[in-house]
Amino acid sequence: MGRGDWLLVGAFAALALIEGVATPDRPGQPFVTVLAMALMPVLLWRRTQPLLTCLVGFGAAAVLSLIQLATGSDDLGLTSMMVILLLLYSLVRWGSGKEIALGLPFVAAVVALGMVVAQPDWATIIGGSLFVLLFIALAAVFRYRADLAHRQHREIRNQERLALARDLHDTVAHHVSAIAVQAQAGRVVAAAQPERAVEILAAIESEASRTLTEMRGVVQVLRLDTNDAYSPQPGVADLPALARTDTTPTVGVTLSGSLSDLPQPVDIAVYRLAQESLTNALRHARSASRITIEVCRVAGDVSLRVTDDGLALSGATAGQGFGLMGMTERANLLGGSLSAGPGPEGGWVVDVVLPVEVSA
Fold first, then answer.
1. What are the Histidine kinase/HSP90-like ATPase domain coordinates in residue numbering (predicted)?
2. Residue 161, exposed/middle/buried by CB under 10 A (0-12, 13-18, 19+)?
């Protein structure tokens, strides 16, 4: 119940009172005016209780028709009683299917009773019926538009959740895989080279801090609705940060071509696809000594290739999981393609081609 609802009630109640005072000789006064004024507060509940308020409103109209029939009056109703059309609108606009099915027959019966009592000509009957149907049609149109907007909003939210799920998977999986590799190396060298173990622990700490920072960024996006909540996303220019020369396997990054003016969706996608491919290589490339990330722009396409020299898993096993599925989906959404499989000289190769000009 907002301020507008109270103003609406006050306006119709004042109209009913003014009509009652201006026509004191009308049959049924002052009962008719009191009944009309008593009806107005139901407007406050027309959205939450559309069936009940509609039944009350048209019930009051039925009472007036019966009084008119008993007194033989030609015109008993007040203009302010047109408020019942708002209650009819509310029934169709906010009522459930069951409430509408129950309420409309009652409305039709009351309208028919009013016409029988008033005995209008055919032109008045047709015009009055169309006027009532107009309110029903308007309510149905606005209800459909509201439902459509709700479905579109829900679809947008679902797309946002999928995008955030991909980003969360890409971010956390990459850093956690790096932490796991560092921890395994630390166990090997801890006894023989304590000073090397300290370096590895420092690297693990750095990866953990970076993971926490990126996770906080994702959580911030989830908690805030404005675009200002989105922190700058990593792109191709950030790929050199993935390079590693002090661990096994080493990671090399090569960038060539004009990559500084890529559209943001493509720029972000290249980074995320490279990051996820690196994560998969760290996880699954057994005995790998080197992983290579190559990004190149040729004409209207940007290509990404991630290779390793390890012992790859079988194609059936490697193709399972959400990582490769999410990567393929990300590439397809931008009109690109992704292929992944064993390389001709061993290891595993991921090839991605994305068009620079992303279609709407």
1. 265-358
2. exposed
Which residue type occupies 196?
R
In this predicted model, which residue has the larger pLDDT, 1 or 136?
Answer: 136
Q: What is the pTM of this model?
A: 0.49
- Window from 43-57, 77-91, 162-176 with minimum mean pLDDT: 162-176
* DSSP labels, 72-117: T-S----GGGGHHHHHHHHHHHHS-HHHHHHHHHHHHHHHHHHHHH
If you average pLDDT over every residue of the chain, what do you get?
Answer: 81
On whether residue 112 sits in a domain, the answer given is yes
CB atoms within 10 A of CB 107: 22
* Any domain includes 223: no
- Given 60, 93, 119, the domain boundary residue is 119
DSSP state of 311: B
What domain range includes position 104?
3-119
User: Among residues of the chain, what percentage have pLDDT more than 70?
Assistant: 83
Please give the pLDDT value at position 82: 84
Instruction: Answer yes or no: is 159 within a domain.
Output: no
SS3 196: helix
Q: Which of residues 119, 151, 176 is at a domain's end? A: 119
Quick check: 226 pLDDT over 50? no
Region class of 287: left (phi > 0), else alpha (psi between -120 and 50), else beta: left
User: How many C-beta atoms lie closer than 10 Å to residue 263's C-beta?
Assistant: 15
CATH code of 251's domain: 3.30.565.10
Per-residue pLDDT tens digits for 119-178: 778 888 898 889 889 999 999 999 999 888 888 878 877 776 776 666 666 666 666 777
Which positions ≥6 away from 132 have C-beta within 8 Å? 85, 88, 107, 111
Locate tokens 């395994």: which residue? Answer: 184
Q: Give the CA dihedral 150, 154, 155, 156, nearest 10 degrees.
A: 100
Total domains present in the chain? 2
Residue 155 lies in a domain: no
Find out whether 47 and 4 touch, Cβ atoms under 8 Å.
Answer: no
The band of 102, judged by pLDDT with boundaries at 50, 70 and 90, is: very high
